[in-house]
Amino acid sequence: MMMGKQLYEGKAKKVFATDDPELLIVSYKDDATAFNGLKRGTIRGKGVINNQMSNLLMQYLEKGGVPTHFVKELNERETLVKKVSIVPLEVIIRNISAGSFAKHYGVEEGIVFDAPTIEFSYKNDALGDPLLNAYHALALKLATKEEIETIKQYAFRTNELLKAFWAECGVTLVDFKLEFGRLSDGTIVLADEISPDTCRLWDSKTGEKLDKDRFRRDLGGVEDAYQEIMRRLREHL
Ligand code: ADP
Ligand code: UDP
Q: Is any ligand 1 atom within 6 A of the Cβ of residue 24?
């Protein structure tokens, strides 16, 4: 597959065209940002881990009935994916209170919910990714009613599959963010990435954070946490 011109450089990845108009190459960087780009840094080796983890998890999800953009891992940092038109919604599923949920509703982190929650934010950096509900998404024509239904179904199915998988690794899946997109025929698939950048993952025994919160909150041991979570994934796949 020929790597074509760079189409986009985001905060964590670069996106390249290929000689097939339906396919893209994503390249994972070690750059880390938080708080809408206010905090910047580097997490050595993160790009390799996020690429490999995302690909392994997406293949696992495919087997469980969630269609994804994954095509083929090309090397440590680069993956061939199906090109989608991204639905500009960040889809967040939570099993346990943490982060902005705990802040918004004035509760401590670590409350285990009876059932998972779902929320959407409008993927728009200039507006700071504001929260919105499904009616707002319809009003703004970000997605159709049918697309939102499909996205919700896939998101909850993803949670069931990932929660069970991480539990086997001794890891509690607290919350995570997903992005979906449309293939050229309109089919909705899971896109972007699933990694310690986009999930909160806590050691089931000690509660230790094994995700990007170590970077966000200056907890130290960031690289070690990414290595440890990858080691556990490999041990159980
Ligand atoms: P950001 O744009 O938030 O800085 P990244 O650095 O991760 O994020 O950039 C990757 C970009 O590629 C994101 O905007 C994401 O929505 C987009 N993307 C992810 N998967 C696909 C895909 N299969 N097709 C097209 N765009 C994608
Ligand atoms: N998340 C993400 N990208 C974002 C916002 C959130 O990947 O732009 C992930 C985050 O890693 C966490 C989950 O979504 O796993 C919920 O994040 P939250 O709303 O608590 O926001 P935060 O605490 O990151 O501000």
A: yes
pTM of structure: 0.98
pLDDT at 51: 99
Residue 121 contacts residue 133 (beta carbons within 8 Å) = no
As beta bridge partners, residue 91 has 120, 178
**Which residue type sits at 184?**
S
What CATH number does domain 3-82 carry, 3.40.50.300, 3.40.50.620, 3.30.200.20, 1.10.443.10?
A: 3.30.200.20
pLDDT in tens, 172-192: 999 999 999 999 999 999 999
- Out of 93, 100, 111, 217, mutate this one to test ligand 2's pocket (max ligand atoms within 8 Å of CB): namely 100
Q: Which CATH architecture has domain 85-236?
A: 2-Layer Sandwich (3.30)
Q: Is the pLDDT of residue 224 over 90?
A: yes
Backbone angles phi, psi at 232, to 5 degrees: -65, -40
- Rounded Cα–Cα distance for residues 57 and 192 (Å): 12
Coil vs helix vs strand at 42: strand
Average per-residue pLDDT for the chain: 98
Domain map (residue ranges) of the chain: 3-82, 85-236
